[in-house]
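Example 3.
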Amino acid sequence: MFGFESAKQVLPRLRGLASVVAIATLALPTALHAGIWDEGNIENGQALFNANCASCHLVSNEVLAAPGLAGIADRWGSSEEILVQWIQNPQAAAATGDPYVKSLVDRYVGTYGWMTAQAVSADDVKDIMAYVQNPPDVVASADTGTDCPTIYDAIEEEQSANGTIWFLILLTLFLIIALSAATVRKSLEKAADAAADSEDLPYGVRLQAWAWDNRTFVSILGLFVTAYLVVIGYQALMGVGVYQGYTPDQPVKFIHSVHVCENEVDCQYCHHSAYESKHAGIPSTNVCMNCHKAVKKGSRYGEVEIGKIYAAIGFDPESGTYLDGEGKNGYQGPQDDFQGEPLKWNKVHNLPDHVFFSHQQHVVVGGLECQNCHGDVGKYTVGRVAPVEEINGLVDDFPGLIELSKPTLTMGWCIECHNKAEISFASSGYYEDIHDRLKDDLRGNEELRRYMEDEKTTVKELGGWECSKCHY
Amino acid sequence: MADNKIYWSGLEELDRTPEFERIESQEFPAERPVDTFLADDRLQRANTGRRDFLKFMGFSVTAATLAACETPVVKSIPYTNKPEEITPGVANYYASTYYDGHDFVNVLVKTREGRPIFVKNNTETGFGRVNARVNASVLGLYDSARLQAPHLNGEATTWGDLDAAVTKGLSGNGRKVLLTGTVMSPSMKRAAAALAASSGVEHIQCDAVSYNAAVEAMEMEFGRRVFPSYQLDQAETVVSLNADFLGTWGDTVWYTQQWAKTRRPENGSMSRLHAFESVMSLTGSNADTRTRVKPSEQGRVAAALLRELTGQGAAVSLDEAVMAGVKAAAADLKRAGAKGLVIAGDNDVATQRIASAINRNLGAVGTTVKVNATPSLYQGDDKAMAQLVADMNAGRVSALIVDGINPAYHGADAEGFKAGLEKVGFSVSTALFADETASRCTAMAPTHHWLEGWNDLQIDAPRIELAQPTIQPLYNTRHTTESLMAWAGQPVDAYTFLRQTHNAAYTADAMYTDQDWNKGVHNGFLAVNVSEEAAPVHTGADLGGALRTVAAHKGGSFELDLYRKVAIGDGQQAGNPMLQETPDPITKTTWDNYVTMARVDMEAMGLNTYIAQEDPASVVKVTVDGKSLELPAFPQPGQTPGTVGIALGYGRGAGNEAIGKAAYQVGEGGDHLADAEGNLVPIGKNAFGLAPVVDGMPTRAAFDVSVEATGGTYPLACTQIQHTYMGRDSVVKETTLDSYLAEADVKRGDATWNKTIGLNVHDDINGDGEINALDKKAAGEFDLWHEHAVDGVGHRWGMAIDLTSCIGCSACVTACHIENNVPVVGKDEVRRHRDMHWMRIDRFYASDWDMERGEEEGLGVISTYGKMEEPGANPQTVHMPMMCQHCNHAPCETVCPVAATTHSNEGVNQMTYNRCIGTRYCANNCPFKVRRFNWFHYPGYDKFQNFNPAQDAIQRMVLNPDVVVRSRGVMEKCSLCVQRTQGAKLEAKKAGTPLEDGSAITACAEACPTNAITFGDLNDNSSEVRATYDNNRTYHALEEVGIQPNVAYLTKVRNTPKA
């Protein structure tokens, strides 16, 4: 979609804002030699538009946070100079008393507020207007321009793989037992009739005879079958409670790849409490609204999925304002008395109640990257437990990532890492103090020497394998 | 007209067939022979054989089991619009103030995700220390029995309809009365004044437990109608005349903290406490000398003290033993002079006046006792209350508004009040529950719980304490001031009203901009200017009348003392299961009140003096002026013979009122018991109103009562049934101040009162060339196990408990249990000794017997031990907090077959619930018996449905989310609040600074009002706990076992007078 494309590029381009501003302020204002509407550079204009205007305006006639700009050349009812001034300093333009500007102020400022003064030169405005009037066909570039494939698309998948395994096991078990029950009954019935009908040997007896005649084959086959069943059974049992690849359906078909990879939103923007709390947290809906107040359409599901956020928090996308308890809109912030149904997400990373895990311990103190436990989230749709092999594959992209072998979110995985992760005594005053205590004490010194035999101190050596570090 | 119908069972009977007659003669018909049954052909042809049946059965069970192995889906619901100050997983603390009509204390409230879960001391800016009642009050917030909407004539209604009805009710012609407890809130006083102005409503105050006599005495002595303010930190000698000021009497939250400051032997001196009482109280158990007196003698003891000190008054007749106690107390008071203090507890004006006169003669007024001009606590007026009840019964009261008290339960004339209430034109109560009073009122306008609303409170300090809401009101309730103002015709919201009390010009625009206010909310108080008060001047009133009154007090064969228990207090939190299950620090009994009696009296009456799981108490009937109560008799060491004691605060909800599920008795299956009429059975019996009213004031003593055995029995649930430590001096070490001071500078382990325990070794240790009994090695040097590297390595958490400071108040017990989600198990389980208390306070009485006396009297060892089990008649008492000692050589760890309990390198004995398989070997091997086994699934099993907070959908919100709720079949015990030490370490790591001493603190240490418990990092050489460990009073319990605990005790020092 046209509107979506420009909007979804807002965020990365915002990063360029600083440089654009710098360039723009250096550029000397030049007189307008020709018509502002048709002499600009479209490509440059697109860049400028995305950097400065796209957070509020669309080039279509749809409203984002301000009126759409389609057809502006036809409806602009004042001079070109006023247009430039209106963009550079709207209040100053209004102060000129220009009747068209006054009509704009009357019509829009009440609803959308004053436009922010933009640091663009008159030439820049020329380029922007060229782009606004002739936007390239962005739809074509939507599929080609992205480096962000969504690989782990769970939304289309059934449930987790666990379910399938159990289904198969159940089916096999049922078949085996049903068959054996049937044969037992049959053989019993036959045995009962055996006296009457001794000529025709029962099936079971004939099978026994055949097996005895081919005993080498039967025993080898039996061995293989048994071994196979043992291996399958073992694997199935070891998979109990392992949630690798667990990707539950979510009430909103949230796409991480769009947010994380395409739009480069930092993990902590939404999961900010990872730095402050034991929980990384699912972002509250008002955090979603920071962007989605402007971005009202998604690339894949259009307005449907984003609409669920609006329904939860009480937002009217038409007017761009919030609703109150009586469904009346016109509020700039979310209203406490709005009684929407909150979004009920399905928890992805489940730990049992008796496990204490703290994100801030690992992220702030341990300095771990999110990817070390959660994998390359930029390739996911909804949240998902990354299998350990996948995480290990990221080691080239994330130097310092600790490669592990046990399945993710199992205790083996946790303590394997605690045995590998190093602690630098010099890293903080806290560990320096611990180091000093070890150095200054006879027994501590001995202990320290033991730690340093492999020339590193691991989390385990400082108690990271002790039960009550995580269980209380 | 009766016609005799004949019924027959069949035609055979009618016909009397021979077959029938044969069968009738046999009571049991002959069985059908098995052979004939098996010989049935049809059986052999059954379609489903036994084996097939078993196969199908096995398959279906397996299939059902496997089908259950589905990935559980856990919901996670974030805030829609997250409040800025809340981060999920991070606790917020808010300064607030607790006041319930009796206790008044500044607190910090811990909230998680907007739920208050813990109440602790505000040590930085606050006054007072929380006690068990304040601590546990957080449970009451979530009680689902609370009124959830305004009610009119028993039906839920809207506030608008209610207000209309009240306004109409207030338009009557009779007396209109606002009846409250003591009001400490300036806003509430303003609202009462507004109501008086608008509808002529009088304001009468009345306290649940009356302190009226003390107030009246001050009025007669100094012309100031106030409750005196005692400054115990100034006192060198304190004499308590039946005033349990450390447990339940007066402003305990303030007294305990102040008194403890004078009880540090390291200062070189200690205050001395003399107690005169009949029932062993918490104060008496902590007294340096305790004299047993009868209630009728209290006044004479005061008079005798006055005479000893000043020569005033005539000689009074007292026992020799009592007189000796009086002389000792008088000598100490004389020595202390202005630093002496006499506190009288009885609600008797004469005694109160004499006590006041003693203080005045000592020159203590102004130092240890302050008589302020402005009233603060206990402003109740019993005479006005009595007049009100009389007017109500005479139909002269047209409207009654009741707030904060429950006179239909605790009133001196509760029956009269109830009868009168029916004749009042319109009555409304603001109680949280439809309690004894509220349920009988026309309307109920429930107010907020103290954690839900704003409040301002003023006690005798130049500041106004603030209480702030820590949660949105859970139910449709309304602040009392808001209700009163609505009824006064000036509707205003409670917050605006409160702000306007302190700044008349306040408008909503200034909600956040007043910096003084913001600071006040942060700190919990607003500083205000108070003009200097003139010193109180004695009125010169003659004491003669008072002296004559007390001299005339005469006792009968039995006398009654009504006391209060530390956990239940005046009974307003009767529905709080945590408090019901907190053992009384003296009797160690939970879930009941009872009649405390002296052992000799019980033996004389043939009552059971040994109460245990299968040995129920004997029930006695106590009769006072025709009113009687039947309660179990409890043998209380230290009880004055000829006296009985009954605790107030029990028997709540006798009329089936909805005051909380936990307020009623349950059967073994967990269902509420019901009497013949289907009424729920309250816990204990109500003793309010049992004692006579004298001079218009309800007393707490009756001088002539009869006690008779009923022959019935009743089981009591005690957590400790042994009373002495039977000469095991390594459990409790104690000495006197004089002996301590003589060896105050001796190194730890050398003092006579705290010698390191040595064990014999087969080695010539002392080098005398012989291997004999003199070759001893310190117990701590034996190593049966490998050393745990805890010293000098990282942290080593340690705790030191000063037995001198510990008064046994049980604030640590409730704090621990709320912090650690310790389940409430109910009376039946406590009786079976399956209580889950992680922290208990062992109470030991001294015995009159020891091995030497046994030898002298020619008793064998076994008989001597038998004698040593008996506490003395007036024993000295020790309170010893006991929890997991975190032994470095832990006996529990070595016997666990699955390594579920292990030692950490921080010195903590870890308990890993998810690994435990419940063999209970560890509990058997624990020398301190501090491990608790989860016999049941307490959060789900029916037996606990009526009192376990985790079983109530709302009350479970009080659970601490940082600590797991243990499941059935696992052991649990004190973890040294590992969630807190881990949290403090994380904070230090994040800040990149060494762990600060005091940043990691256990719930018990935090709650301790007397700072008896010190907790910290023993490897931090600058820490307080390290310094305490090196104190020469420090020892380890059961040191000779060689378990090397990380919890230490400090020898108890008593300031015993020289013999």
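The mean pLDDT of chain B is 88. Chain B touches chain A through 64 residues (CB under 8 Å).
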